[in-house]
């Protein structure tokens, strides 16, 4: 992504249905897994333009990292300090520095996902947790993934195996964005029948406000089910809560 694309992301991140519902998902999962905690040390890997980092500050101190300087410049305007330009394959933090590691839609961007998940594990304290989201199903691969520089989409078993290889114990695993699955599946099928575009584009479509609000409301109902521990049977994304086993476990 270039500076103009991050500028658009910064503009959309506050209220656009995709970003708003994802942020609500993450914040609710933190509240469920760390009830009444307001002194956590949190690492936000791939913070983008910083809206989620900003909102996670209600739970404690947040360190926000991204590989791209342009993203961090926008995050700075949200007062997301401290900020750190870092490669998720080699995080510049001591072992066990954080109570919670958040990697929201970032692992699919990394060439060596095994190394990145091992680094997340190293940075998390024993007994600490990680909340991770990744896109699901390679059969949904499209120009959107190409434009966003994804290396892969995951099936459930594959992502669980990657986490366990890195040492994580999986506490919760679910599909998300279940309500979006039918229209997106159909849209991707239609795309394949059309001539390929000259340059791939991400599908962040400006929607009328009533439509955007309706999508947020529907997905917040879905998020509420996940926050209560319900595992959704299908969707276009996966969410996992993983734990680094304590000493001696």
Tell me what the CATH architecture is: 3-Layer(aba) Sandwich
- Cα-based radius of gyration, to the nearest Å: 17 Å
CATH class: Alpha Beta
Q: Give the total of domains.
A: 1
* Order of strands across the main sheet: 3-2-1-4-5-7-6
Shape: globular
The number of helices is 9
Distance between the termini: 41 Å
Structural class per helix/strand content?
alpha/beta
Topology readout:
Blueprint: H1 3-13, H2 17-33, E1 40-45, H3 51-56, E2 60-66, H4 69-77, E3 83-85, E4 98-104, H5 113-123, E5 124-135, H6 143-147, H7 156-165, E6 169-176, H8 181-193, H9 209-227, E7 237-243
Parallel strand pairs: 1-2, 1-4, 2-3, 4-5
Antiparallel strand pairs: 5-7, 6-7
Helix pairs in contact: 1-4, 2-9
List descriptors.
7-stranded mixed beta sheet; 249 residues; Rossmann fold
In short:
The chain is an alpha/beta fold. It has helices at residues 3-13, 17-33, 51-56, 69-77, 113-123, 143-147, 156-165, 181-193, 209-227, and strands at 40-45, 60-66, 83-85, 98-104, 124-135, 169-176, 237-243.
Give an overview in words.
This protein is α/β, with parallel strands linked by helices and 249 residues long. The protein has helices at 3-13, 17-33, 51-56, 69-77, 113-123, 143-147, 156-165, 181-193, 209-227; strands spanning 40-45, 60-66, 83-85, 98-104, 124-135, 169-176, 237-243. It has a seven-stranded mixed beta sheet, sandwiched between helices. The relative contact order is 0.16.
